[in-house]
Structure prediction request, 78 residues.
Amino acid sequence: MESAKNVLSQLSQAKKIAIITHLNPDADAIGSMVALKRLIKRNYDNEQNPVSIDLFAQNENLDEKYLPLLSGVIINTQ
Prediction:
């Protein structure tokens, strides 16, 4: 429980966050990454503490079936 409190404390103070998925991400990995970004933005991003969150996935061609998950989301690929 203490480690979860530590993570929440760190998130509340963060200015920049990178969310990285595993190689050749599947729908679960992409969905989790996007959901985590939205959760952090909803709970920690505000005028007093703006948060910049970047998403990264190592896959040059994200499968088209993932496009509904990515509406309005930019994923940096390498």
In short: Residues 56 and 76 are 5 Å apart (CA to CA).
